Amino acid sequence: SQQGEEDPQALSIQEGENATMNCSYKTSINNLQWYRQNSGRGLVHLILIRSNEREKHSGRLRVTLDTSKKSSSLLITASRAADTASYFCATDGSSGYALNFGKGTSLLVTP
Amino acid sequence: DGGITQSPKYLFRKEGQNVTLSCEQNLNHDAMYWYRQDPGQGLRLIYYSQIVNDFQKGDIAEGYSVSREKKESFPLTVTSAQKNPTAFYLCASTNRDRGTYEQYFGPGTRLTVT
User: Fold this and answer.
1) I want to staple B91 with a disulfide (CB 3.0 to 4.6 A). Which of A23, A24, B27, B106 is the partner?
2) How far, CA to CA in Å, does B4 sit from each of B12, B23, B30, B87?
3) Digitized pLDDT (tens) for each residue of chain A, 111 residues in all
4) Which residues from chain A sit within 8 angstroms of residue B106, using beta carbons?
């Protein structure tokens, strides 16, 4: 079942600007992950944040998690054209280490 | 190179035919998954397997079947009972021993049924 829901559905910015996308989910989680998908390709794991963490950084990525609001945000700083992709949040599922994915945010970064 | 391979990249079939999508991994991961992605949509879980010779249905298993005879391989068969089989199919795996849920994805197979 799709638990996560990303917002906005689409985002268009210029190179150098920051991109922020949000994810809301419905039930309690152990961790939340963000993935990236280039058009027509498989997903690539970006970052995982555990339920007891509030913020995590990886290079130009910054992820926050607010479990009281059941929401997370992904910030990409100093965006590049190569960041153009769809970004998905995923929460841990009920069993089997399966993940519940949202519908994604489509990011377009123009030169 | 370690990773997950899916073949073929594009697959075309006539309605009423069964088709099998291949997924192979050399990451020594125990758990493997099949997802379906439709345009503008997220991923929906079809089947998953946590160990060889065992698998469980996901959210949309109807019309699909799988097998897990080897740790490295988790093929998915799209049967004629699947009403809307045209989609992008993604295979993934994860290392349960690490205690995390990070999944590694293959490049996907785009199936078109006419």
Assistant:
1) B106
2) 22, 7, 13, 19
3) 556 788 899 999 999 999 999 999 998 888 899 999 999 899 999 999 999 999 999 999 999 999 999 999 999 999 999 999 999 999 986 665 788 898 999 999 999
4) 42
Residues of chain B contacting A31 with CB distance shorter than 8 Å: 100-101
Q: How far is B103 from chain A (nearest CA, A)?
A: 7
What B104-107 contacts at long range (C-beta under 8 Å, 24+ apart), as own/partner pairs, is B104/A45, B104/B3, B104/B4, B104/B25, B104/B27, B104/B29, B105/A35, B105/A42, B105/A43, B105/A44, B105/B4, B106/A42, B106/B3, B106/B4, B106/B5, B106/B6, B106/B23, B106/B25, B107/A41, B107/A42, B107/B5, B107/B6, B107/B9
CB-closest option in B40, B42, B107 to A41: B107
Check CB contact under 8 Å for B42 and A99: no
Nearest to B111 by CA among B14, B3, B4, B5: B14
